[in-house]
Each structure stands twice: as structure tokens, then as C-alpha cells.
Amino acid sequence: SQQGEEDPQALSIQEGENATMNCSYKTSINNLQWYRQNSGRGLVHLILIRSNEREKHSGRLRVTLDTSKKSSSLLITASRAADTASYFCATERAGGTSYGKLTFGQGTILTVHP
Amino acid sequence: GAVVSQHPSWVICKSGTSVKIECRSLDFQATTMFWYRQFPKQSLMLMATSNEGSKATYEQGVEKDKFLINHASLTLSTLTVTSAHPEDSSFYICSARERFPNEQFFGPGTRLTVL
């Protein structure tokens, strides 16, 4: 079963606004990653945050990780129409047999209106 | 960033035939490759983990005799869907990973349609 749960399932905003997506998970992790997927296309890696990190930035992206609450958030600032896509969080579980395996959340469909 | 390719990008086949999908890491050696399946409007589900030179390990509920995985070299893994049926129609995505760092690089996906 999918470990990650994301909310909201869908988010619709205007260009220039900020978009926040949340992800929760259930087990101990090595890291959490965020990916973007345009309709019918492959995944684009956005950012990786390790379990001992609390916040990370990359351009207009800001990711936080709260391991005590087993949750993460992705903030996209000053959104653009080109940011319209599905966004997935993925967790790499801690533990030898799970090395490298990613469990994906259900995803958030972001629509940014011009 | 590193590049992973998949071939073909889409395939349509008749029920009962077998289809082979290739996943290649173009500019790095992938010690591990992963195969995922994604149904429309759903998330990715891990099917199996493939390590070069050893047998693939399959996730619970994935039939290893139906989804044959071969990882013959550090740059190539193949997934063969044997005796495909319409319910196997899906988007199949591979990813490749070097030993370090932790990042996985995803291929563009292969859309399989079984008639």
C-alpha cells in the first residue's frame, strides 16, 4: 500500500500566488523526495531532503520535513502557469532491505491559471 | 543531471503477446534499477527492484513469471510483460540509481496498451 498521503488532492490557484502541498508518511525514512510529473510524462526530480534536515530551498521551492510528525510540505512561491502538473512526494524507508526503494504518495494536481 | 532513457515510448499490442521494455542509463552506471507502474490518475507503484547481475526482487502482489526483469549490465535493464492482457495496460516507468548519492533518475515512461 502507498505509504505517503498527500493533501490537497487538487489545488487550483492564480499565477503569482503561492502553492503549498503536504505529505504524510508512516515509517522511519532515510529521505523524502518531491517529484513533478506533467500529464502522461515521466518524473522530474525536484528536491531531496534527508531525515536529519528540516528545511531545504531550491529556487522557488521550499521543502520542510518534520520527522516527529512524519510530514513534509512543498511550497512553490510566485507560481507560474508552467508549474501546472502533478506533484508527488516519495519516501525512502530506513532499513537495509528497503535501500533505494521509494514509496510514492497519491499526488497533488496543481493547476495555475494565467 | 543523469539521463535515463526508455524504449519504446509507447506500444500497442494484441492480447496474449509479450512486450519488452528497455531502460538505459546513458551517462552513469546504475547499480540498481527500479520498475514502477502507474495507472491513469494514480500514483506510481513499485513493481520490482533489479540489481545488476542478480535476480530481481518483486513487491508483494507482482507476478514474477508475468513481469520478467533482466539487468544484464550496469546500463541496461529490461522488463518483459509476458502474455499481456488488457488489464496490463498502464504506464511503466523505470528509474536508475548510482550507489551514491541517493537520487534516483527516472526514465520518460512507456505507455503500454493491450487490445
Helix content of chain A: under 10%
| Structural class by sheet pairing and helices of chain A | mainly beta
Taking the sheet with the most strands of chain A, its summary is: 6 strands, mixed
Mean pLDDT of chain B: 91
Compute the CA-based radius of gyration of chain B. Answer: 13 Å
Strand content of chain A: over 45%
Low-confidence stretches of chain A: none
Number of helices of chain A: 0
> Largest interface by residue count?
A-B, 23 and 24 residues
The rounded distance between the terminal residues' Cα atoms of chain B is 37 Å
Alpha-carbon distance between the two ends of chain A: 36 Å
Class based on secondary structure composition and strand pairing of chain B: mainly beta
Overall outline of chain B: globular
Identify the quaternary structure here: heterodimer
Instruction: Please tell me how large the radius of gyration of chain A is.
Output: 14 Å
The ordered string of helix (H) and strand (E) elements of chain A is EEEEEEEEEEE
**Total count of helical runs of at least 4 residues of chain B:** 0
Reported for the largest beta sheet of chain B, the result is: 7 strands, mixed
